């Protein structure tokens, strides 16, 4: 259950990270509210997950999910560049996350 909570926390981290772009510097009310709610949910779920998971592993997995998801959505939604090096780095992050999961 803790890994599932951590995965959800990572998804909400993606939501708030991408949401920041749509808040327009926190001047747009609805995107701002949704972004702040995503931040709170993400941190609460992370807090619940670390009750049973090692803190370092959980934090690394949480940030890894957030990083990979945010980069991929940036490419897909925002037109960020999808260079070979960027995609290779995403693969390295995913490999690291898998390694941490297997080592926990």
From TrEMBL:
Keywords in alphabetical order: Cell membrane, Membrane, Transmembrane, Transmembrane helix, Transport
Coiled coil (UniProt feature): none
InterPro entries in UniProt: EmrE-like, Small_drug/metabolite_transptr, Small_multidrug_res
Subcellular localization: Cell membrane
Transmembrane residue ranges: 33-50, 57-78, 84-103
Pfam families found in the cross-reference section: Multi_Drug_Res
GO cellular component terms, A-Z: plasma membrane
Family: Belongs to the drug/metabolite transporter (DMT) superfamily. Small multidrug resistance (SMR) (TC 2.A.7.1) family. Gdx/SugE subfamily.
Name the UniProt record assigns to this protein: Guanidinium exporter
Taxonomic path: Bacteria, Pseudomonadati, Pseudomonadota, Alphaproteobacteria, Hyphomicrobiales
């Amino acid at each position: 259950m803790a890994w599932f909570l951590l995965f959800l926390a990572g998804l909400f981290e993606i939501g708030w990270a991408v949401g920041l772009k749509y808040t327009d510097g926190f001047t747009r009310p609805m995107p701002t509210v949704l972004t702040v709610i995503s931040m709170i949910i993400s941190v609460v779920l992370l807090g619940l997950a670390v009750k049973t998971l090692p803190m370092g592993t959980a934090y690394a997995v949480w940030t890894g999910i957030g990083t990979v998801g945010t980069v991929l959505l940036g490419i897909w939604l925002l037109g960020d560049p999808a260079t070979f090096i960027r995609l290779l780095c995403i693969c390295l992050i995913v490999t690291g996350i898998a390694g941490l999961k297997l080592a926990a």
